[in-house]
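Subject: design request, 214 residues
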């Protein structure tokens, strides 16, 4: 089938990765590298992070639950400290790619986010929230885990996006920075791109779509 839609993750794709902020925090606190990611990867369907992204618990409950999980792994980190690290910086080149794609395909965003900050991008300042809002308006559809009550990698969130776009999964390309989120999309028939670097992802998208991005 021909490509009809490009579906994007937000954090780590349209913005810089929150993992960079996690690692800075870990260095500053003398924590093991990727400690926060290791907490989030343990019991990934039921842990504090999973519950928070699907709006099963609020920020205060997440703060305590994440702290308990971290303490069980040997270090104290509160959930609110992690939430403060989530909002990355917009990538201007990727936004230009997004605009070019919009002129040729339907575009959507599937984001695992939480009910904190301002808007789907979880911005921490009014200026950043306004910039993120401008980007969000480019999408034909935004699907948020905190709104839907389901999160990647649950296959239902991908089928939901395709249904709302009126496209078959085989007609869609999905970009995400996490392999675990790409596997169910690929199983549904989507072409997938793991965003390791901005340039690498853009080159792969060029190869799939036949478009050329400045």
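Subject: RE: design request

Done. Sequence follows.
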């Amino acid at each position: 089938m021909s490509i009809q839609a490009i579906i994007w993750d937000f954090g780590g794709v349209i913005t810089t990765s929150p993992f960079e902020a996690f690692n800075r925090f870990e260095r500053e606190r003398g924590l093991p590298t990727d400690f926060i990611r290791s907490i989030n990867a343990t019991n990934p369907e039921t842990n504090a992070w999973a519950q928070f992204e699907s709006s099963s618990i609020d920020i205060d409950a997440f703060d305590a639950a994440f702290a308990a999980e971290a303490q069980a792994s040997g270090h104290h980190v509160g959930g609110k400290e992690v939430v403060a690290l989530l909002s990355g910086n917009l990538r201007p080149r990727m936004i230009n790619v997004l605009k070019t794609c919009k002129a040729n395909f339907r575009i959507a965003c599937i984001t695992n986010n939480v009910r904190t900050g301002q808007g789907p991008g979880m911005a921490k300042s009014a200026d950043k929230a306004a910039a993120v809002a401008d980007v969000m308006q480019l999408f034909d559809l935004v699907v948020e885990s905190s709104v839907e009550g389901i999160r990647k990698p649950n296959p239902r969130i991908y089928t939901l996006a395709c249904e709302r776009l009126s496209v078959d999964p085989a007609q869609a390309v999905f970009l995400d920075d996490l392999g675990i989120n790409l596997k169910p999309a690929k199983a549904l028939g989507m072409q997938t791109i793991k965003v390791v670097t901005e340039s690498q992802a853009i080159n792969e998208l060029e190869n799939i779509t036949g478009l050329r991005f400045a």
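The radius of gyration is 17 Å.
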